[in-house]
Structure formats: C-alpha cells, structure tokens
C-alpha cells in the first residue's frame, strides 16, 4: 500500500510540474536529514498535488459542450481516485483572497470601481444592492412553467426576461440541438439553420428535461455574450474561489460557503470576488459556462451575467453607446434595469432608445437607437401611452418572442407558431407605408413630418391622393400620421390606399403565451385536493387567443359582420361569408402592448388576466 501511494505521489508531482500554473500551498520540502513524514502528512501532500494536477489538465483541455449527466471532467476523475476528500477539507479551501489554483484574472481596483459606478452609481441604497446580489438563474420547479426562470423580487427582471427570451428561442425552435451533444464542433448560432416557415413548436413544457433546460440556458448566455463582444469574444465573470472545477456536492458547498455573509457595497467588494476569463472560441466558452453554471445559479448569478455582458462589450464601448453616460445603468429609486441594459442583451449595444437607427438633430447632436435586426424583440406599454415608438427591428424580430416592458417590470411574450409574423397583403402594404413615413419623421416618434417629406412618402409608397385631400393634409405645414392614416384607410386600393370591399384581406387568428417570472399565488395553477382548491406559488403563464379583425377597428368589425343564421333563423340573403364574430374582447395592460404590434388585436384568455407587473 505504501509503495502504491509513493507511486501516485510521484505521478502527481510529474503532472503538476509540467508548466507553472499557480499551485496551492503545500508542506515544506524535506531536507536531506529530516525524517520521512507520517502517513497522514503523505496523504495530505498527495491530495494537494493531485488537485493541482487536475486543475492543470482541465485548463489545457478544450472539449465540446458535454452533458452534465454524461461527462466526467478531469477533476471528477481525480476525485473518484481520491474519495477521501471530505467536506471539512473543502471548507478549508474556500477563501476569496487565495489566488493559488484558481483560473482567470482579477480586475484592477480602478476597473472594479469604474464597473460598480457604471452599474449602480454613487448613491445606491443597500436595498437595491441586495436585490441584485440575491437573484440566481434558476428554472421553475412547477411543471407547467418549468421552461421559465424564477424571479424572487424586483430589480434584475430586465436581465432575467431578456435571457428568458433567448432560452425560449432554443427550447422552442432548436429542440434537436438542445437534446443532443455534438462533439468538438464549433457551435453556429445562426438562425438560418432552421426554416421558420410553417414551424410550430410544442407547448408540452412539463416534458423538458433538466439537461435540456441547462443546455438552453448556457447556449443563450454564450450567444448573448458573443453578441455583446461583436461576435469576436466573450468575457465570463465568475467567483474568485478555489475549487470551482470540482464536480458534484463539493462545488455547491464551496459556493454556498463563499457567499455566506457576502455583501456587495463598493467596487472594492467586487474586485475581491470577481475572476474574469476571456474567450474567442464559442466551444470553449460553452464549456466554461457549463462548468460555472452552479455559480450562475447561486444568488450572485444575475449580477455576474450582467457584468459578463458589460465586460464583453467593453466599458468604454458601453459608455460610447449611451446618450448620457453619467447616469447609472440600474435606475433609482427601485433598482430596475434600464433600457440600456435590456438593449445590450437584445442587440449587443447599450443604446438607450428603441426606435430604428439614429435620430440626427444637426450640429453633431443625435440619439442612438437599434441599428440591426434582432433574434428576439421588444414591446412596451409606454408606446401605447405615446411615450416612445418601438421600431421595426425590435417589433419584428427573427423569432416570435418579445420582452415586454411596463413602467416597473419586464416579462416575456411568445408564440409557438413562427407564421404569426408573416404579413398578409394588407399588412405588407401597411408596413410599407409606415416605413416610408417613419423615414421622414424627425420628431422622435411624435408622428408628424414636413410637407416636403410627405411628398417623398407619396412617391415611395405609390399613393395618388385626390387634390382636395392633399391640400387639406398640407394646409398646416406638417402632416400628422393619424390624419394621414385615416385618409389611406378611406382610399381605394387602386389609388394606393387600403380600402377593401371584401373586408377579409386582413383576418388573422393565432395564440400567444405570456410568462411572468415573479412567483405568486396562481388560480390557473390550483390543484384539487379532496375537493378543495390549493393555490400554488409559481411563475405565471397565460395562453391568449388573439384575433385580428379584417376591419380596421373591432367596433367596425362587430357592426358590419354578417353572421350565418342558426337552425330556424333567417337566411343571410344568399350572401356567403367566412367571417364569424370573435369572442367578446377581454382587456389588460398586456393587450395594449400587443396592439402596438397588431393594432386591431382582440384578446381572450382563461383564468386570471395576464400581469405585466
């Protein structure tokens, strides 16, 4: 037995000395005249050397994204050979100040102070800091909402909702890739791999495995971070704790012990706990994120992911993206994520506005908006209140998933059928006219343009207005969208308008789902127990039936529709129609958000109304 231990020790020594990574503290070397250590000292030395060797092998090994249930890591293999490592020895390794054996670099105190000031500002309250340092990235345990990330309290909802939108993209529209492992092949996250036409995802959320959800989460994090890094790099911020490469219960014990009593109140606090790794390979970054997933599931997870996105973009680039870089990214007094944070995670740039492109006011003054198409989009209640105008980039994303903003919260709206974004003839014409008008609108989304710009719109859209209507619209020196739009609705198609005698050209019916990650008592999730209902605490998921009437207002549709007669009723004078009355419309603030995307939408649901707060 002693000979075998000596041989294992020599092997570990050779492996740990192949290069010069930081090594853990170990016993003093033996002098020539000193006696041989006791067997207990020898075993302790062996464990330390083998741990150092295992960490060295893990750093030098580039592997594809493995399944948590299938891939024993180098450190796990070492642990199997050395099962005597106890919880007590794990606790002794937990020290934020220890540098030996941990990977990545430490931020300088100047970088940490800049980062803290950029995120929280100088007068941030302890309550806000507590909100942001007590939110992990964890899925719901409720089967019906198992695809959703749970939010415990206000604050980081902008980070969670945006990440949730990307997670849904992978779970719904890339199920084959989430369910299998492709070894040693770089991950290509281009949306073109999957044809979007006529694709309908499954709504059987309870069938999702923990492995599939973890894979979707890690892929989403990787995609967002590389997007922030201009597709060139991703920076991953984790905790400065020795032993995070250990598998199983020991890793969770290390993280829990390290976070005991930890508070983040200054840049110096951040500097002590953060370790930063930069990757140019998506494959290796995926492996790192998978290994560090328990860290992001801990109470520091949401803040660590936000920091990773900010550092991937670069702090100087973040400030250059913003219209007013003097303001903190987390807004007072309630600690909500700003629009800049949400836009950073949606499009990779921390711009503060939601319109397309940028708005130039002359003299070098301009406001920055969304400059590119996006994977998942954004809708906001503030647009229905005329406080802003969401552009087509965010309103019409590549996938039918939207982050929904209210005055105080972010949630997620999504469809299973990709065809909900397909435009029919009427919608295509509407979009064409609106784009031409918005291109001339220099009012910041106010909805009016100059007479010169109006004539350009008429030329681009092929609209031939009667002279009396043209003179009336131009009489004030500027043209308001609402007045112009009413004229277009009354103008015949042959003249470039949208008047349709059939009334059927714009009909559309589809389903949407709304997810709110804040856990509350939910009637929809109640279960019958011995004849009594028991409310459950869970995130809220609501299915909405959406009807877009063929007429231009729901009232117009209800008034003009011809209803087929029932048995014994009057005949409809031989006039056949495919149009039927929709269900009576229900209303909630979410419906106002939906109508910024589908302006005539009529929505219905079962149970509690969907909540966006």
Describe this structure in words.
This protein is of the alpha+beta class and 613 residues long. 39% of the residues lie in helices and 14% in strands. It is built from 24 helices and 14 strands. The protein has helices spanning 2-16, 39-60, 74-81, 87-93, 109-120, 126-132, 157-173, 175-178, 210-228, 249-259, 267-273, 282-291, 293-297, 301-313, 315-321, 339-347, 381-384, 392-395, 425-440, 451-461, 467-474, 481-490, 554-560, 589-595, and strands at 234-239, 274-279, 330-331, 336-337, 358-362, 365-368, 377-380, 401-405, 410-414, 448-450, 478-480, 508-529, 532-548, 602-605. The strands form five sheets. Strands 7-8-9-12-13-14 form a six-stranded mixed β-sheet, sandwiched between helices. Strand 8 and strand 9 (410-414) form a beta hairpin. The termini are far apart. Residues 1-92, 562-587 are annotated as: Disordered. One of its GO terms (biological process) is proteolysis.
């Amino acid at each position: 037995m002693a000979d075998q231990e000596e041989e294992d020790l020599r092997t570990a020594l050779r492996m740990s000395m192949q290069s010069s990574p930081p090594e853990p503290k170990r016993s003093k070397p033996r002098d020539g005249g000193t006696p041989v250590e006791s067997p207990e000292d020898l075993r302790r030395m062996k464990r330390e050397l083998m741990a150092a060797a295992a960490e060295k092998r893990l750093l030098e090994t580039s592997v594809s994204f493995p399944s948590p249930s299938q891939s024993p890591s180098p450190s796990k293999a070492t642990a199997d050979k050395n099962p005597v490592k106890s919880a007590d020895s794990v606790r002794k390794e937990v020290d934020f100040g220890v540098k030996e054996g941990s990977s990545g670099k430490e931020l300088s105190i100047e970088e940490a102070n800049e980062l803290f000031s950029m995120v929280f500002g100088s007068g941030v309250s302890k309550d806000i800091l507590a909100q942001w340092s007590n939110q992990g990235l964890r899925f719901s345990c409720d089967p019906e909402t198992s695809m959703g990330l749970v939010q415990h309290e206000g604050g980081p909802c902008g980070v969670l909702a945006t990440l949730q939108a990307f997670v849904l993209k992978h779970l719904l529209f890339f199920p084959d890739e989430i369910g299998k492992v492709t070894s040693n092949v770089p991950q290509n996250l281009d949306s073109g791999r999957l044809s979007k036409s006529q694709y309908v995802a499954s709504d059987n959320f309870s069938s999702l495995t923990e492995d599939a959800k973890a894979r979707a989460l890690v892929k989403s994090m990787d995609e967002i971070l590389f997007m922030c890094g201009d597709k060139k790099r991703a920076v991953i911020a984790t905790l400065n704790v020795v032993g995070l490469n250990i598998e199983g219960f020991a890793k969770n014990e290390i993280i829990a012990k390290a976070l005991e009593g930890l508070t983040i109140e200054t840049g110096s606090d951040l500097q002590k706990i953060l370790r930063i790794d930069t990757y140019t390979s998506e494959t290796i970054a995926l492996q790192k994120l998978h290994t560090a997933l328990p860290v992001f599931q801990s109470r520091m997870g949401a803040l660590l992911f936000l920091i990773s996105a900010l550092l991937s973009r670069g702090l100087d680039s973040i400030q250059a993206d913003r219209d007013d870089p003097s303001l903190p990214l987390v807004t007072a007094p309630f600690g909500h994520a700003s629009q800049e944070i949400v836009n950073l995670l949606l499009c990779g740039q921390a711009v503060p506005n939601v319109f397309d492109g940028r708005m130039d006011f002359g003299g070098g003054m301009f406001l920055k908006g969304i400059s590119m198409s996006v994977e998942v989009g954004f809708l906001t209640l503030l647009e229905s209140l005329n406080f802003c105008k969401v552009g087509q980039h965010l309103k019409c994303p590549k996938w039918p998933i939207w982050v929904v903003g209210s005055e105080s919260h972010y949630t997620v709206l999504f469809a299973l059928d990709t065809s909900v974004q397909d435009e029919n003839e009427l919608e295509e014409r509407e979009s064409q006219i609106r784009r031409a008008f918005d291109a001339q609108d220099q009012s910041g989304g106010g909805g009016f343009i100059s007479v010169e710009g109006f004539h350009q719109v008429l030329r681009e859209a092929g609209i031939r207005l009667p002279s009396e209507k043209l003179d009336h619209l131009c009489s004030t020196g500027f043209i308001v969208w609402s007045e112009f739009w009413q004229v277009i609705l009354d103008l015949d198609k042959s003249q470039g308008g949208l008047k349709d005698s059939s009334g059927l050209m714009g009909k559309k019916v589809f389903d949407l789902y709304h997810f709110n990650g804040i856990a509350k008592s939910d009637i929809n999730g109640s279960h019958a127990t011995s004849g009594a209902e028991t409310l459950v605490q869970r995130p809220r998921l609501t299915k909405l039936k959406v009807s877009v009437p063929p007429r231009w207002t729901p009232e117009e549709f209800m008034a003009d529709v011809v209803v087929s007669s029932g048995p014994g009723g009057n005949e409809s004078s031989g006039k056949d129609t495919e149009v039927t009355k929709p269900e009576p419309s229900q209303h909630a603030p979410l419906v106002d958000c939906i109508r910024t995307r589908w302006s005539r939408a009529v929505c219905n649901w079962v149970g509690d109304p969907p909540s966006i707060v």
